[in-house]
């Protein structure tokens, strides 16, 4: 009897150690991904140089951790079904690359697809899930983005569950990023399957536009923002809505980049930069490494913002934070500056979802401007400011 009990207890202990291993992404993951800037034009030099730049630019110190290789790293499967990297683009192999990235104190991510082929036409993992998971684990991979091309007739929830289980049985903690574009409402089923799930189609480096490509279209910052409207209740520590990777530094204006980054932080989104870190401008770097804005994204409560006021082109978002603080983001969606004379007392934040209320009528909060890095008074007086076109003012209010 005693032996049986010990056996059961050990089994439970092993299971819970296994589960703990996958207890990742307590705050939204931060890193870099090759797709937005380089698409299929990738190789091991780019990945190594990006890892170097992640450290030398201060991005790593700001919290960015994952170096993620997106589509097109693949070569072919061998006669036993094992996948190999493209021998011309990745001649040293993935294990060597992972060792290099790890030697910088960073983590390495890779990409595959639940279907027969990736979106770039490379071999998908359908039918090879366990074999691929073991391969990734043996290479030392830390993050898997799992796409949804060539999946006709496949059930999304089951497909992502299969890969989750494959990763678990491979035994290495690998962050699992679900990328099925929100087509099958992953927020309803993916909480215990992936650490994050894409909520929309692909982002493009444009603030306010939709670019059609026949069967699909890519979306600007505002188009993606608007699609997050009803999703905040589904996200939290360990399971995040993913409004797609960042386009900061990829061609939008500085105002637009600042607004994009601020909004993603308000959304508690994964912060996966998508620009060329080897040639990053001072201005782009100062956006991506603004510690005060990143801290809003990384707040331990993991509550996504709500749009609490809508005045047309001027919208105001509020994100309840730890320590009874709240972040407030005034967004100017339009193309002309908007002057603001904002009487806090008229606009309390009441968030039924988190149960956190901020009654500016009865309590005075101190205001910190997170882009100016300055304390700018309190909610006792009206906020007088001008929000530039396609830009934000982002504030943190503390008691
Ligand atoms: C899909 C994904 C993108 C990217 C490409 C790669 O479109 O949504 O993020 O991974 O595939 O082909």
Summarize the structure.
The protein is an alpha/beta fold and 399 residues long. It has helices spanning 2-21, 35-38, 44-56, 93-103, 129-139, 156-170, 221-226, 254-266, 282-288, 291-297, and strands at 30-33, 66-68, 74-77, 83-85, 107-113, 143-147, 175-178, 196-198, 210-212, 217-219, 240-242, 271-273, 306-311, 314-320, 326-332, 338-342, 349-351, 356-358, 366-369, 374-378, 383-387, 391-398.
Q: What does this entry look like structurally?
A:
There is one protein chain. The protein is of the alpha/beta class. It contains 10 helices and 22 strands. It has 2 domains: 2-297, TIM Barrel, CATH 3.20.20; 306-398, Sandwich (Immunoglobulin-like), CATH 2.60.40. It has an 8-stranded parallel beta sheet. Strands 13-14-15-22-19-20 form a 6-stranded antiparallel beta sheet, with helices on one face. The radius of gyration is 22 Å and the shape is globular. Alpha-D-galactopyranose (GLA) binds next to loops.
Set down the secondary structure blueprint:
Layout: H1 2-21, E1 30-33, H2 35-38, H3 44-56, E2 66-68, E3 74-77, E4 83-85, H4 93-103, E5 107-113, H5 129-139, E6 143-147, H6 156-170, E7 175-178, E8 196-198, E9 210-212, E10 217-219, H7 221-226, E11 240-242, H8 254-266, E12 271-273, H9 282-288, H10 291-297, E13 306-311, E14 314-320, E15 326-332, E16 338-342, E17 349-351, E18 356-358, E19 366-369, E20 374-378, E21 383-387, E22 391-398
The structure holds alpha-D-galactopyranose.
């Amino acid at each position: 009897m005693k032996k049986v009990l010990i056996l059961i207890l050990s089994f439970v202990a092993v299971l819970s150690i296994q589960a703990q291993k996958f207890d990742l992404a307590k705050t939204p993951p931060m890193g870099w991904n090759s797709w937005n800037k380089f698409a299929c034009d990738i190789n091991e030099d780019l990945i190594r140089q990006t890892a170097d730049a992640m450290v030398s630019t201060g991005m790593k110190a700001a919290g960015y951790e994952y170096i993620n290789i997106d589509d097109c790293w693949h070569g072919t499967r061998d006669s036993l079904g094992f996948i190999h990297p493209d021998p011309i683009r990745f001649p040293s192999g993935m294990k060597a690359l992972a060792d290099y990235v790890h030697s910088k104190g960073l983590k390495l991510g890779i990409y595959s697809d639940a279907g027969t082929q990736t979106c770039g036409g490379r071999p998908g993992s359908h039918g090879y899930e366990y074999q691929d998971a073991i391969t990734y684990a043996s290479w030392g991979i830390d993050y898997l983005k799992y796409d949804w091309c060539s999946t006709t007739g496949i059930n999304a929830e089951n497909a992502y569950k299969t890969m989750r289980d494959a990763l678990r049985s491979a035994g290495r903690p690998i962050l699992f990023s679900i990328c099925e574009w929100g087509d099958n409402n992953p927020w309803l089923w993916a909480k215990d399957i992936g650490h994050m799930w894409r909520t929309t189609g692909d982002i493009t480096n444009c603030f306010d536009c939709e670019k059609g490509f026949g069967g699909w279209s890519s979306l600007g910052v505002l188009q993606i923002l608007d699609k997050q409207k009803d999703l905040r209740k589904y996200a939290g520590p360990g399971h995040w809505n993913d409004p797609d990777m960042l386009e900061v530094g990829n061609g939008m204006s500085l105002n637009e980049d600042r607004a994009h980054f601020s909004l993603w932080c308000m959304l508690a989104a994964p912060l996966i930069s998508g620009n060329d870190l080897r040639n990053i401008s001072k201005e782009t770097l100062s956006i991506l490494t603004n510690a005060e804005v990143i801290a809003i994204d990384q707040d331990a409560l993991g509550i996504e913002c709500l749009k609490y006021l809508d005045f047309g082109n001027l919208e105001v978002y509020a994100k309840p934070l730890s320590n009874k603080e709240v972040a407030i983001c005034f967004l100017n969606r339009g193309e002309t500056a908007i002057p603001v004379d904002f009487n806090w007392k008229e606009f309390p934040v009441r968030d039924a979802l988190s149960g956190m209320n901020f009654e500016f009528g009865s309590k005075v909060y101190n205001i910190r401007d997170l882009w100016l890095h300055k304390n700018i008074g309190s909610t006792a007086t009206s906020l007088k400011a001008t929000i530039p076109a396609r830009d934000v003012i982002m504030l943190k209010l503390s008691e």
